[in-house]
Amino acid sequence: MSKRKRSEVGSLGDDQTYYEHELTKGTLPHTEAGVFLPRHSFAKETSTFIMDDDAFVNNAIHCRKLQSELSQGINAIVSSEGGERSIQKQQQNILWSLVQYVSRDDTNVNEEIFASVTQLANDLILSSVTRYELKTKNRKEIDWIDGWIEEAEYTKGNSHLESANWSVHQLVYELLLQVLLSQSSRDSRVIVAYWRVDSLKKLLDLFGSPDSRERDYILSIIHVFYKSVVKFRRTIRKFICIRIQSIVFDEEESTQGITEMLEFCCSIIRGFAVPLKKEHEDFLMRCLLPLHKLVNMESFYPPLLFCIMAFLEKNPCLAPRVLDYLLGCWPISNSSKEVLFLNHLEEILAAIPADILKDIICKAVRRIGLCMASYHSLISHRAFLMLENGQVWCLLLLFRESTFPVLTHYAEQVASSHWNSNILQIASRWCHRLRTLN
Known about the structure:
By secondary structure, this protein is mainly alpha-helical. The chain has three domains: 17-22 and 196-314; 31-129 and 166-194; 322-438. It is built from 22 helices and three strands. The protein has a three-stranded antiparallel sheet, with no helix packed on it. Helix 4 (60-71) runs parallel beside helix 6. The longest helix has 19 residues, at 166-184. The chain starts with 40 loop residues before the first helix and ends with a helix. One of its GO terms (biological process) is signal transduction. It comes from Galdieria sulphuraria (Red alga).
């Protein structure tokens, strides 16, 4: 393992301030079977390939030679039952030695090495950006899709998609990340000189990779770009906006990578300058809120909630528009999503000042009442549970003339006709309390 740990990469906002964003993703390496692990004995045996001769790495001629050597046979397809390819083993040896070298505290990553590693990433990773499709195969049947191997068991009905070259690609990503961190701490102009907008877009497009390990590396690298290079920030935000809109409005578009994109968005939103620019508010209304309409919203709900609340912390006056949108697309036919919407509604009502919510509170309380009267016990219980929140209850007390009659009506309806005995007891208790206070 390298001495220099992967640094915590923050988000730089338009006001040139950022908060420390702790990367919770794993560093080198992952531990799935069949994946090259730099910590195991094979890596230790080959770690002296370059480390004993620093001048060998500093030589720009060697860096250019490295590109040629690693490019040979990188996309070759071999049988999964065959032995380890000698050329891939050689690539791993060279890459792991380079990762160790550039990760040392006393290493000076010059511009020539940075240029060579950038070109290496373009040759081995960015030059073959494609879309991948998963198809169910017969049991023990193996298929190759654009350099990725897919193995599916028919009896279980699930598929496993894994890159045949991930052992090499992982080390390329780690090498690229280390040299980017080294350059970003000294001079970001070097990054701009060797990273064009088209290469950046290809890198961002890999957020749609079917391999979560690859998406983790992309997330870390994009954080470095956004923190270090102001010129790239608008491009990154624009691409993420386009990607999210394509997921929302194109039913055939895969939602892979949306969790990582939302995690990245949450960090940069906290760095936005106040007052918010119109383009940032448009990003909230046109990209983030429409994600609530997706059927599989549960899979990326936590980072989506963090993004929404981060926007409301910056500008609480956006809360009525956000609530109006949520109430307008309420999932009345999806019980699991409805519970999440109730949680979302509670978070907003508890965090926003009462004077901002005065025009939308009646509409929100009516929806709470309808959820209380739901025949689905989980929805009904979750709606009554909202009233236990002290901040929400204080808000309802403040507008008791308009909120209590609605809540009392639905509580009485539930107490007289609901099929669940537990819900009946909760409704009866709240009926008595609401009548007393009203």
